[in-house]
Amino acid sequence: MDILHKSYEYGKSPLTPSSLSSSSNAFLFGGNISRSLSPLLHGILFRSVNASWTYHLAQTTDKNEFLAKLADLKSIGVSITMPNKVTFGPLLDDLTEEARGIGAVNTAFVRLDSTGNRRWIGTNTDCVGIREAILQHNPHAASKAKGQPAMVIGGGGAARSAIYALWKWFSPSEIYIANRLQSEVDDIADFFTKTMPSTRLRYIPDVNAAQNLPSPSIVIGTTPDYPPSEPGEVLCWEISEYILRKSKGGLLVDMCYMPSTETRLLCTARKAGWVVIRGTEVLVRVCVAQQVLWLERESNERGVEEAMAAIAMPDRNVKL
């Protein structure tokens, strides 16, 4: 995986021949994570390569607690989720291109400087998870999507990861954005003007504006799965539904999987003839990318298959 090769730009490996058998720890820092799937998935992936590492939940937004865990020499990896993805980034020693380009950190890994001191490097594997989930379904998706429009539904942090993944690896002509508030889209456009100046974004204000647009080849949903109630939410749904129903043969990724993996958006897309990818599949690919950086080895396919089987079980009301 390319992220592993690039990680050595930030320093040398901290691992030794006995590291996998040591009692090293990885942590998830977030606000409401008691029902997270991450311990289950990381446990499966660790076991698949015979790593005696343990993945812990750290339900906190306390920066001092975060820094204390980083200082522990047994800490080898960190996951970061809401509401810490932006606030914890500046506490790390350096950030990768992905973290800077998206403006949020969901993963940190250790590399050693020239004197052997540990450095914590922040990155964003959400975008890698999106890329890998799409390519696993269609290895030719990047060439098929090149020069075609794509679309993102939503205007939060996950939308930024989706925009980054689409623009960097799928080369769309432009990216449509449907969202409840234009002001959020304006903020995104301003941000990407600074971090990825070539990005072309188009806000869709209403269904009429969508009627004459070429159909997107890839759509990524990033909004919660609850019935729209506010006017902006209703309009966003109407735009999304219209585009899915007028288009055929595209690919939809819905990053939401709560309270059910069978979201309203995913069901609408499938009924309209789209290939669909559940948010839990993206979640597994995010965890795989994190472990590539921590274990410094490519993923074990047996472990990935076992993780996929675990999230294919009946719906769980959980979050990453």
Characterise the protein shown here.
42% of the residues lie in helices and 17% in strands. The protein is of the alpha/beta class and 320 residues long. It has 2 domains: 2-124 and 285-311, Leucine Dehydrogenase, chain A, domain 1 (Rossmann fold), CATH 3.40.50.10860; 128-277, Rossmann fold (3-Layer(aba) Sandwich). The strands form 2 sheets. A 6-stranded mixed beta sheet has the order 2-1-3-5-6-4, with helices on both faces. A 6-stranded parallel beta sheet has the order 9-8-7-10-11-12, with helices on both faces. It is globular, with a radius of gyration of 19 Å. Mean pLDDT is 94; it is low at 316-320. It holds the Pfam family Shikimate_dh_N. This is Shikimate dehydrogenase substrate binding N-terminal domain-containing protein. One of its GO terms (molecular function) is shikimate 3-dehydrogenase (NADP+) activity.
Radius of gyration: 19 Å
Strand content range:
15-25%
Class of the largest domain in CATH?
Answer: Alpha Beta
What CATH calls the topology of the largest domain is Rossmann fold
Name the helix and strand elements from N-terminus to C-terminus, one letter apiece: HEHEHEEHEEHHEHEHEHEHEHEHH
Unreliable spans are: 316-320
User: What is the CATH architecture term of the largest domain?
Assistant: 3-Layer(aba) Sandwich
Annotated CATH homologous superfamily of the largest domain: Leucine Dehydrogenase, chain A, domain 1
Choose one word for the global shape: globular
The description of the largest β-sheet is: 6 strands, mixed
Helical run tally: 13
Number of strands: 12
End-to-end Cα distance: 22 Å
Helix share, percent = 40-55%
Strand order within the widest beta sheet: 2-1-3-5-6-4
Overall mean pLDDT? 94
Q: What oligomeric assembly is this protein in? A: single chain
Class derived from helix and strand content: alpha/beta
Pfam families: Shikimate_dh_N
InterPro entries: Aminoacid_DH-like_N_sf, NAD(P)-bd_dom_sf, Shikimate_DH-bd_N, Shikimate_DH_fam
GO molecular function: shikimate 3-dehydrogenase (NADP+) activity
Protein name: Shikimate dehydrogenase substrate binding N-terminal domain-containing protein
